[in-house]
Amino acid sequence: MNNLKKMKNSIRWVVALKEEAQVILDYYKLKPINEKTIYPIYKNEEETHWLIICGIGRNNAAASTAYLYSYSKASIYTSWINIGIAGSDKGNYGDLYLVDKISTYERKKSTYPSTMPKSTLPKMHLFTSDIPISDYTSYELIDMEGSAFFDIASKLTSKEFICLMKVISDGPKNDIKEITKSKISNLIKVNLYKIIDVVSYYERISEAEFLIIDKPELFYDIKSKWHFSATQSYRLETLLRRIETFCNKKDIEKTIKNCETSNSVINVLNTKIKNNLVNWSKF
Amino acid sequence: MIETIYVEDAIQNHPKTKFILNKFKKSRIISINKYGEIFNKRNQNFRIQKANPCLILAHKKDNFVLPAPEGFGIGSSKNFYFSHMYNCIYDCRYCFLQGMYSSANYVIFVNFEDFDISIEKIIKNNLNTKVTFFSGYDCDSLALENVTGFAKHILSIFRKYPQIEIEFRTKSIQKEPFLSLKPMRNVILAYSLMPELMSNSLDNKAPSISKRIRVISQLASKGWKIGLRFDPLIHGENWKELYQELLENIYNNISIDNLHSVSFGSLRFPKRMFRDIFKLYPHEPLFSSPLSLNNKMISYDIEIEEEMTSFCKNLSLKYINEGQIFKCSI
């Protein structure tokens, strides 16, 4: 049997400041891990949610995203969340926005994160800058980490599993110099239920993807009884997935119980499929 | 409902862009440089995108009309195809489009005028040859007609060349522009069909077979030429009874005089495409069928294919001539 602990959904958070993260840490009951790490890392007891405090700037965001991926052994079905404050003169102070386009000074090409479907949350174009910007007029949202987070996260999973959320904290009417630690925490706190709602979507798609790519139930049982080469293992997995549609676990076990070799297991399963007449009224 | 529409900068002011955007007033519009920035990039999840596809409006630069693959035809000596769109609003489990692009978003090319030029050029170079054009090889040719108006647009070209055939292949029940127009003898409205029971499981998001037959019947009565495409033929319990019921239902409910052609095709996937589609939908009942690797293609065994084709062909011969029946072998 597979030794790895099976987690059905998998979420990784990348957050610049502890003040932005605090409400998330409290709600999801994330505790600091008991090891010395390059960036502070938190996780929940089930190890489904992990959060890293990356600090300010694109280099930190990129490095910490890659670090968390490696440290927490994130999977292809892991959803990645970046949440934080942002400047804007287009939206309202304190409102939460989803990001669906990201630009930077350095790159001519923009990138285009997906956003959760059917959300009532407004969406904006994010500009990630390396220096604080006081002229808000050219951009919808301004932050200092988003582009780097997205660039790295999109190498780790599909873009449908990546989400950037920004709360407007400053703008022409709200001076950036007046932002305090408690104001930051409060800005996230007032949006907590919207954030939870978004994250629950990412939990669901992560779990759904896990269920699709997870090995068939009998795969490890069968592999423990016969010796399969790598190619045979792949064939076994494919055959089991196809057979599971019309045959239950007991029947499959009965079918292969007299097999002496892995080859005969594969042949018997193959024959079972060859003789299958799909009953379309069942589907 | 399309939530997000990406629009290439270069075609933002194109009249067709404005026409299409006008139909999606609540959608979020995002400007892009080239459609390749969104479409078919690596690291996209086709299955999740398919649940909520975005629309991309783009400018097609070249390859407007291409020669149809060998084995794809209905009797002409030269066959060509063109696609004003990539991807389909339906989600049919046997469709090659699932493995074709890594993206499930829809791309619509708005520069219809460039399709016109290419089509007319080919027609003028083949005036003495029997030529058929196929619309919508990389999409369903009519499913988004109410958004694009492409069929209506392209018909005006073919009205000028009555000796040149065009086939619109579809699963949609879109009746316009055909119901409002005078029938054209060189236009074939070709419908993909399979027994309702199979279609219920496989033709996700597509109109039911009974609705399709009703529309076929209406358009045939109006005088439009109809093509029936049983492609792919699907195997399973009681397949003979299911196909007999379907074929008899159709032949008894449409005006046979307006039946242009019938074609039968086998279920076939190139090996790599099958692997990609199977990865997307490993629990799909279709893949528990007796499919195996034959001649670099994943398909039913040749005996099954031949039995199904000859059964359907023999049944059809009670209603139509042998010359109207074709085998689709790609």
Compact overview of the structure:
The complex is a heterodimer of chains A (283) and B (330). With 283 residues, chain A is of the alpha/beta class.
Task: Assess the beta-strand content of chain A as a share of residues.
Answer: 15-25%
Question: Biggest sheet of chain B, open or closed, and with what strands and sense?
Answer: 8 strands, mixed
Strand count, sense and closure of the main sheet of chain A? 9 strands, mixed
What's the average pLDDT of chain A?
Answer: 94
- Total E-strand runs of chain B: 18
Going across the biggest sheet of chain B, name each strand in turn. Answer: 4-5-9-10-11-13-14-18
Main attributes?
heterodimer; A: 283 residues; alpha/beta; Rossmann fold; 39% helix; 18% strand; B: 330 residues; eight-stranded mixed β-sheet; five-stranded mixed β-sheet; 11 helices; 32% helix; 23% strand
Describe this structure in words.
The complex is a heterodimer of chains A (283) and B (330). By secondary structure, chain A is of the alpha/beta class. Chain A folds into 2 domains: 11-213, Nucleoside phosphorylase domain (Rossmann fold, 3-Layer(aba) Sandwich), CATH 3.40.50.1580; 219-282, no CATH class. Helix content of chain A is 39%, strand content 18%. Chain A has 9 helices and 9 strands. Chain A has helices at residues 18-27, 58-72, 146-156, 181-189, 192-213, 219-225, 230-244, 249-256, 262-274; strands at 11-15, 31-32, 41-43, 49-53, 79-87, 96-104, 123-128, 141-143, 162-170. Chain A has a 9-stranded mixed sheet, sandwiched between helices. In chain A, helix 1 runs parallel beside helix 4 (181-189), helix 2 runs parallel beside helix 3 (146-156) and helix 7 runs parallel beside helix 9 (262-274). The radius of gyration of chain A is 24 Å and the shape is elongated. The relative contact order of chain A is 0.14. Chain B is of the alpha/beta class. Chain B has one domain (4-328): pyruvate-formate lyase- activating enzyme, CATH 3.80.30.30. Chain B contains 11 helices and 18 strands. Chain B has helices spanning 15-21, 46-51, 97-100, 112-125, 145-148, 150-158, 196-202, 209-222, 239-253, 271-280, 302-316; strands at residues 4-8, 28-32, 55-58, 66-67, 78-82, 85-86, 91-92, 106-109, 131-135, 165-170, 187-192, 203-204, 225-230, 259-265, 268-270, 291-294, 297-300, 325-328. Chain B has an 8-stranded mixed sheet, covered by helices on one side. In chain B, strands 2-1-3-8-6 form a 5-stranded mixed sheet, with no helix packed on it. In chain B, strands 15-17-16 form a 3-stranded antiparallel sheet. In chain B, strand 1, helix 1 (15-21) and strand 2 form a beta-alpha-beta unit. In chain B, helix 4 (112-125) packs parallel to helix 6 and helix 9 runs parallel beside helix 11 (302-316). Chains A and B meet through helix 5, helix 7 and helix 9 of A and strand 2, helix 2 and helix 7 of B.
